[in-house]
Write a structure and sequence with these properties.
two-stranded antiparallel ribbon, two-stranded antiparallel sheet, 90 residues, single chain, alpha+beta, elongated
């Protein structure tokens, strides 16, 4: 299990600023680090992945207005998923 989080208050004002500042999204900005660890240290590759399952009960996606631009940003404020390899490793 890999856990990653940024230190921000979990309220709409803080999240809206975070969404705007990291407009590329949580997967590209944060989860990429955990995926890189899987590739580097656990020999996981696109070819070795059997499934990726999102934990819909835990995960949460919101649309918030950026405080500087006034634009809407949609992103996950929390995200959990499980990768299983073809060898059955989770």
């Amino acid at each position: 299990t890999f856990l990653h989080n940024n230190a921000y208050e979990n309220n709409e004002k803080e999240l809206a600023e975070c969404f705007e500042r990291n407009a590329e999204g949580m997967l590209k900005n944060m989860a990429i680090h955990e995926l890189a660890i899987l590739v580097t240290f656990y020999d996981v590759s696109v070819d070795s992945i059997a499934s990726v399952e999102a934990d819909k009960e835990f995960s949460s996606c919101k649309t918030l207005k950026g405080p500087s631009s006034g634009k809407d940003y949609t992103d996950f404020d929390k995200l959990k998923f499980k990768i299983t390899t073809k060898a059955g490793v989770e």
